[in-house]
Amino acid sequence: MKMAIKQTVKKRMALAATLAAAFGMSGAIASAADEFGENTPYYEDDAWYDISEWFDGNDYNPTDEAIGRWDNETFEFSENATSTDRDNDAGSRGDYGYAQNQNNTNDDWFYDYYDDGYHNWGTSDVNQRNYYSIYNDTDDDGLYDSYAYYSDTDGDGVYEEFDYYTLNTDAGNQQQEKSKAQNRQKQMKSKPTEVVGTVEKTKTVSVRDRQHLVAMVKGKDGAMTTVDLGPKKGVKKLAQGDQLTVNGHTVKVGDKDLFIATDAKMADGSLEIDRNGQKFKGKVEKLKTVSIHGDEHQLAKVNTKNGKTMMVDLGPADQSKLKVKEGQNLTVQGVPAKVKDRVVLMARQVTKGENKTQIER
């Protein structure tokens, strides 16, 4: 899907609206331009309703439960003390902070939990542009409901283009969230930087559904950098005193700078950094190609091994290298998003047998 809509297109639409007003033309053009300038929905209604007919009753994740987990599908506030079905109803702790029992001041150099929004940096195979994308949970219900995309079109280190897509139009103040996302455009650089130094401290930090390893790295000049190395399972051997080289980007979490590592290596080899999100294994029951913003996307109904059925957006159909078919077993990793009243896994990596493919959006 061509997520980076050129700024020139937006300018032409605005110009068309101006001309319409000046020459007394129909207000339809102006209305279209105004609507475009607000919050562009990622899924059009006709594409979504066509897919939702696949699901009926208890076999599909509604937004009151965790994606991929079986439970009774309902949540009552009166059951809060005993019910296990509280993940997306009771609200979150916020975007960052310390655990309630935090009393060790030596461990307060970084937060005990934060929401990273599934950052993703890379170079598009389609047009060779550097890009950055991030999902946001605007109403803190545990599911992501908007998607921001930044593109460096000429490789100068500055993101010239910005697009914002609403996954769930009912979530929070989307226009306000769009403005916040756009403000990041001025603060970020598309080119990665390198940090080299010695590991001084490490701690395990909760990042939504995962446990990340965060390290304090002391450079040769004495400067300290807080580095997120991704899910802890990929970097279990890291310890105080180890030499570390990381490439990545700096983001702001609360009042702290955090270096998000895209790749890292120690003296004895590279570390595995997997930022593709939650992982599920299952069999494809149904496939359907739908049009989303003029591009054909492949959506799959996947039956997981724990008896749950989930919707997976496999991304642009013309970019798929795996040739997914009904009845095949897949491993999908991605971001749990809220669309209407349902949960969709926005796939970032799909594995079929020994073959893996990354999903570009």
* Termini Cα gap: 6 Å
Quick one: CATH class of the largest domain?
Mainly Beta
> How are the strands of the largest sheet arranged?
1-7-6-5-4
What number of structural domains do the residues give?
4
Largest sheet: 5 strands, mixed
Structural class: mainly beta
If you consult CATH, what is the topology of the largest domain?
OB fold (Dihydrolipoamide Acetyltransferase, E2P)
User: For the residues shown, what is the average pLDDT?
Assistant: 78
Helix amount: 10-25%
Low-confidence stretches: 1-37, 70-92
The tally of helices reads 4
Secondary-structure element string: HHEHEEEEEEHEEEEEEEEEEEE
CATH superfamily assignment of the largest domain? Nucleic acid-binding proteins
> What share of the residues does DSSP label as strand, in percent?
35-45%
Region (Disordered): 77-99, 171-197
Signal peptide: 1-32
InterPro entries: MamS_MamX_dom (IPR058837)
Protein name: Magnetosome protein MamS/MamX domain-containing protein
Give a written overview of the molecule.
It is a single chain. The protein is mainly beta. The protein folds into four domains: 7-37; 45-64 and 277-358, Nucleic acid-binding proteins (OB fold (Dihydrolipoamide Acetyltransferase, E2P), Beta Barrel); 124-187, no CATH class; 193-271, OB fold (Dihydrolipoamide Acetyltransferase, E2P), CATH 2.40.50.140. Helix content is 13%, strand content 41%. The N and C termini lie close together (6 Å).
